[in-house]
């Protein structure tokens, strides 16, 4: 059998594929990567980067509007959303020319090919009319927005995260279908930029995977900022009336200039030919084991296409794990803890178990430690004291962490480390934190727990006054 053309072919150059390619390029092996569209994937072109840029502009507008909180004269900002979207695209283009540039990966020695890929054998990838052979294949083809089969939706037209950032300017009014992180982040952004925004969620809660008490606080803030939230709303059809798109939910109707669909994601597996070579598919995507390996030993999958955690950071982690398992002795497998953050203002971050999940598992062994931001010197100085930090413990060990605060996505990593390493809450109390920060609240709540524990031993303390 002739030697294969490559040691690994990476299919898809989004968040997972780029990490895998960068790692593989350091190993002195032959690497090829195939991309059907643009290097950077969802994160650069339709996800994290443009949405966070939009959120930053929206936050600036909100700050101007409420400048009196900082002793300044407030005013209604003059918003030209065409300039806002131009800024978003400029940021994307800058990243595409630098860290996500195809030339950067070519300079690393990666054979970068463009076109739709098809897996034609356990060790074969076909791109166009050319088939290459390889020891291993890593699937990083990601996912795309799911679109409900809703009568009239296609005819009326709608936006998704894939098409949203191609519009010239924000609509005057918007109906958002869905209550997950993407829908909620964008709803706040558009409301702050002056778009009349209504969110329709079929369930009883938005952000249902997060700590309910903190979600309720965030929902209250969103409502104050003009986001209209309609829960338990089952949409049944869409019509166009008087140049407006009308979403119907039984006897209710919601008219707007545009509809944004944010009801989940669908893995990109259809054109790969995976089932023909024995790769098993499930309802969430490609089935993999803890090593990120499929039923075909030479084929691995990582990121959204594997359907585990639909986050940029978990895609990169899984892709690196897959490369390690291909080429290094010893398996890297098993469960791994994935924190996440909804980048609203304030941010809502999550790691591990919620209080309800922990109590369902362990009952009365669970304790929740709370630190309110109105007790935080930094939060009061910043005028951002409406949030809280919750740490869930079982017999003193940290099993969950939830933060509603500015920069919650930064704060949560300390709690993620604690969950991952099985640390006691007292371990966090014993670590000196910088003052004044939001994160010092973790030390403060941990310290309070340690003080309570110390009460059991106060009989050992002798006072000279007695």
Output the keywords:
single chain; alpha/beta; FAD/NAD(P)-binding domain; Enolase-like, domain 1; 3 domains; globular
Topology-level CATH name of the largest domain: FAD/NAD(P)-binding domain
What is the correct CATH architecture of the largest domain?
3-Layer(bba) Sandwich
How far is it from the N-terminal to the C-terminal residue, by CA?
89 Å
Name the CATH superfamily classification of the largest domain. Answer: FAD/NAD(P)-binding domain
Helix content: 25-40%
At the first level of CATH, the class of the largest domain is: Alpha Beta
What's the total count of β strands? 23
How many helices? 14
Taken as a percent bin, the fraction of beta residues is 15-25%
Low-confidence stretches: none
What's the average pLDDT?
95
Tell me about the largest β-sheet: 7 strands, mixed
Write structural notes for this entry.
The chain is of the alpha/beta class. The protein has three domains: 6-40 and 100-144 and 266-327, 3-Layer(bba) Sandwich (FAD/NAD(P)-binding domain); 153-263, FAD/NAD(P)-binding domain (3-Layer(bba) Sandwich); 346-455, 2-Layer Sandwich (Enolase-like, domain 1), CATH 3.30.390. It is 32% helix and 24% strand. It contains 14 helices and 23 strands. Strands 1, 2, 3, 4, 5, 6 and 18 form a seven-stranded mixed beta sheet that branches. The chain has a five-stranded antiparallel beta sheet with strand order 19-20-23-22-21, with helices on both faces. Helix 1 runs parallel beside helix 9 (312-327).
């Amino acid at each position: 059998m002739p030697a294969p053309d490559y040691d690994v072919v990476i299919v898809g150059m989004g968040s997972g594929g780029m990490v895998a390619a960068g790692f593989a390029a350091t190993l002195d092996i032959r690497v090829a990567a195939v991309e059907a569209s643009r290097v950077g994937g969802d994160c650069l072109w339709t996800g994290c980067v443009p949405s966070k840029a939009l959120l930053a502009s929206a936050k600036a507008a909100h700050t101007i509007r409420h400048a009196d909180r900082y002793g300044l004269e407030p005013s209604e900002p003059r918003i030209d959303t065409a300039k806002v979207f131009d800024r978003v695209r400029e940021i994307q283009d800058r990243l595409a020319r630098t860290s996500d540039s195809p030339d950067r990966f070519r300079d690393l020695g990666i054979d970068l090919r463009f076109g739709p890929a098809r897996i034609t054998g356990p060790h074969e990838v076909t791109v166009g009319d050319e088939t290459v052979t390889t020891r291993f294949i890593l699937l990083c083809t990601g996912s795309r927005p799911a679109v409900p089969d809703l009568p009239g939706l296609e005819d009326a037209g709608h936006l998704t995260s894939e098409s949203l950032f191609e519009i010239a300017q924000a609509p005057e009014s918007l109906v958002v279908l869905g209550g997950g992180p993407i829908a909620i982040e964008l709803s706040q952004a558009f409301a702050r930029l002056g778009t009349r925004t209504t969110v329709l969620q079929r369930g009883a809660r938005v952000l249902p995977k997060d700590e309910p008490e903190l979600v309720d606080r965030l929902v209250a803030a969103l409502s104050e900022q003009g986001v209209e939230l309609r829960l338990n709303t089952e949409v049944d059809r869409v019509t166009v009336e008087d140049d407006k798109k009308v979403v119907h939910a039984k006897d209710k109707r919601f008219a707007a200039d545009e509809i944004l669909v944010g009801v989940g994601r669908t893995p990109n597996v259809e054109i790969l030919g995976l089932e023909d070579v024995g790769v098993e598919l499930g309802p969430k995507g490609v089935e993999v084991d803890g090593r990120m390996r499929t039923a075909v030993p030479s084929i691995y999958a990582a990121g959204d296409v594997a359907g585990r955690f639909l986050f940029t950071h978990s895609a990169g982690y899984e892709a690196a794990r897959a490369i390690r398992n291909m080429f290094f002795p010893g398996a890297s497998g098993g469960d791994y803890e994935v924190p996440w953050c909804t980048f609203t203002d304030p941010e809502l971050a999550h790691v591990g178990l919620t209080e309800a999940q922990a109590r369902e598992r362990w009952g009365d062994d669970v304790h929740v430690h709370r630190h309110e931001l109105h007790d935080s010197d930094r939060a009061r100085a910043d005028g951002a004291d409406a949030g809280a930090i919750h740490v869930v413990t079982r017999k003193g060990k940290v099993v969950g962490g939830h933060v509603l605060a500015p920069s919650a996505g930064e704060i949560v990593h300390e709690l993620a480390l604690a969950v991952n390493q099985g640390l006691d809450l007292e371990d966090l109390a014993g670590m000196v934190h910088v003052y004044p920060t939001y994160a010092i609240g973790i030390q403060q709540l941990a310290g309070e727990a340690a003080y309570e524990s110390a009460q059991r031993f106060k009989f050992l303390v002798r006072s000279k006054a007695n």
